[in-house]
């Protein structure tokens, strides 16, 4: 579900002619990382390589823990090779890795060799341990004679340790063919500890030739090779690579990593896809997702399942609960939105989450998830209409979790949402139909990186949404990301936007800033 359509059609635009300037450590390292197709614009780097660069998809880190993180890359000298093997032979290849305290690798503190195996698309996922908590590190890979770009990462503070300040951005929805990933470039230039990606990392749709940055012959993927090449197209982007190289990411998927609005084992259009075909597709898509994300071994897919709900802890300041609202949900059903037997989290995940929220926690408790949590009535007057793909389509789960936050006394719950390609700020009310009821939690909704094209301040329907839902305090439909700065006393959310994604190099600006005070749920304008 989303609120706007893919309208970023700008044929004839030329892709930015510069690679990376001013991105520090990633600048030189990224040369040659863009490739192929109708949008090829650069010759290979001047110093011709004896061996083709296998690091065309960049590097990434993720899952920061007090003692380490995951380091990622994938060998793909020919990233869009038709067979989905990235130009690699059907055998394993050793990849060396190093972690250092300095970006020149004078003080290497960990090193090793990992096998890049064809069964996992020659991806590499190194789970580094033994590092210091709350510290900055640099990492790189080597395959044959070729060195990867250098990535920067950081470990989480020790569990329970006092943390004075933590900054992270959250992001979602990046249709490659809707525009340039300038917002990722701007995010890479921020001073952050972490990036949280809430899904729609890729879009599975077939490309319309009139769209922006269309790759030749781009059809809707259904096979492992097809999904791999969709990730390869996205991850060839220098701006996205810069954002991955700059910070550790925590990722979770939404629907478009497989198919629009899928629900557990049901595709959106069961009349067009058989159950068997959809499950085969789900399996392929989840494997390709794992192969391209800095996830732990615990998330290696098993048949059609991937383990993604989890908690990451950042000292005494932040508990980050990452939720999965796709794999376990009942099928969307507008008529049954109030049916108490339906679920969006599934029983097991819900139990896990309730236990985590009721136990000892950090000061700020984030639910990092996909779809709109607060009630959102789209229709003026006494009539009502709601999204059946959002928590509004699963009212019993939504209200139950909200009530649990209140009765458990969870410290400062903040719900982060993607999916709708717009920024919102909401008070999560004890009773959404009673504006005077208590505010239980805060919901911050992030806009898209590109999906929907350049975007607008507001749609005509937004006035209705604001009038019908007094707990919604802000709507904006430009593109960007949300930057959050946490201290013990305050959460500051800056809605960072770029005014254009269809012309290169747009600057970023803060469209609005909201703050949440410790102990007072609900964000207010700064
Ligand atoms: Fe989306």
Number of strands: 22
Tell me about the biggest sheet? 17 strands, mixed
Mean pLDDT, to the nearest integer, reads 91
H/E series = EEEEEEEEEHEHHEHEEHEHEEEEHEEEE
Q: How much helical structure, as a percent, in the residues?
A: 10-25%
| Range of strand content | 25-35%
Low-confidence stretches: 5-50
The hetero molecules present are: fe (ii) ion
Number of helices: 7
What's the N-to-C terminus distance?
31 Å
| Gyration radius over CA | 22 Å
Description:
It is built from seven helices and 22 strands. It has helices at residues 182-188, 224-235, 238-246, 275-292, 347-358, 395-408, 461-468; strands at residues 59-65, 68-74, 93-100, 108-116, 123-128, 136-143, 146-147, 151-154, 166-171, 194-197, 248-251, 310-314, 318-322, 364-368, 413-417, 423-429, 439-445, 455-456, 472-486, 490-498, 508-517, 520-525. It has a 17-stranded mixed sheet that branches. Strands 3, 4, 6, 7 and 8 form a five-stranded antiparallel sheet that branches. Bound molecules: fe (ii) ion (FE2). The site of fe (ii) ion (FE2) has 7 residues, from loops. Fe (ii) ion binds at residues 2, 173, 200, 256, 419, 421, 451.
